[in-house]
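Problem statement: downstream parser choked on a complex file, so we are re-checking the raw output for the C2G run. The parser issue turned out to be on our end (a line-ending mismatch), but while we're here, posting the original submission so the record is complete.
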Amino acid sequence: MSAPTSEARTVITFGTFDVFHVGHLRVIERAAALGDRLVVGVSADELNIRKKGREPVFSEGERMAIVAALKPVHAVFLEESLELKREYILEHGAHVLVMGDDWEGRFDEFRDICDVVYLPRTPAISTTALIEKISATG
Ligand code: C2G
């Protein structure tokens, strides 16, 4: 007798992924390992300007292309608002929401529709530190 076919487990994560580095890669790899398919919301340029007060180094089109080309990533979409997480989770049929632990506790409200997992950040690397390092040596 064959086992009943179960629905593929979809994982969703979000991020800017600007000046892509190994900390981004690690969170994507670990997120993908929690399910069968990984969908990534890449934050819009406009969202970064609004929330962080600066334009990303790489445009949303470039950042989406980089993330979409990664082996563990099944699909990418543009995250246009931080307030639309519930809609994105439902739209993509996600079973698990994964974020780095810099967001610890911030998305617990979605536990009614999916699992919420916070992964430890990769230490000692960040886009901001990289930009500072590059401009100091440039
Ligand atoms: N990250 C990590 N280790 C690092 C740096 C980043 O694990 N050293 C993780 C973050 O915790 C996040 C992901 O990589 O889960 C993307 O990080 P950012 O590009 O900084 O994205 P962020 O601005 O946190 O996301 O809805 C969330 C927004 O899209 C913003």
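For whoever reads this later: Strands lie at 10-15, 37-43, 75-79, 96-100, 115-119.
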